[in-house]
Amino acid sequence: MRFVLNGKRTDVPAPPLKRLLDVLREDCGLAGTKEGCGEGGCGACTVLLDGAPVNSCLVPLAHVRGHKVTTIEGLRSRAPGAFAREGGTQCGICTPGVVMAAAALGPR
Ligand code: FES
């Protein structure tokens, strides 16, 4: 499946219905995206799909074909630094998802 991952064209030979969350962690080696509930309720697995936040545990790989996916590893935003500076972290499971959601809001 071809898509753009963190600004680079990527071709991942994984089943089309495999969860994007698992593709990122298992096939792409990007462990920054975490699994919390695994059913779309917590947001720990949030990534950006064409700039919009999505729960990657609910997105099948086929859905991202030809689109741009951004993970916490590829995020170019001031949000991570702001969270670190202000002590905005908790145990670390949900923090990447919170940062991604905040980054999607933009500089406001
Ligand atoms: Fe909770 Fe995806 S792991 S919304």
Distance between the termini: 34 Å
Number of E-type strands: 5
Question: Major sheet, described briefly?
Answer: 5 strands, mixed
Low-confidence stretches: none
Specify the overall morphology. Answer: globular
Provide the helix percentage: 10-25%
Please give the radius of gyration in angstroms. 13 Å
Structure description:
With 108 residues, the protein is of the alpha+beta class. The mean pLDDT is 94. It has a five-stranded mixed β-sheet with strand order 2-1-5-3-4, covered by helices on one side. It has helices spanning 20-27, 79-85, 95-105; strands spanning 2-5, 8-11, 46-49, 52-55, 68-70. It contains three helices and five strands; from the N terminus they run ββαβββαα. 29% of the residues are buried. FE2/S2 (inorganic) cluster (FES) binds at residues 35-38, 40-45, 55, 57.
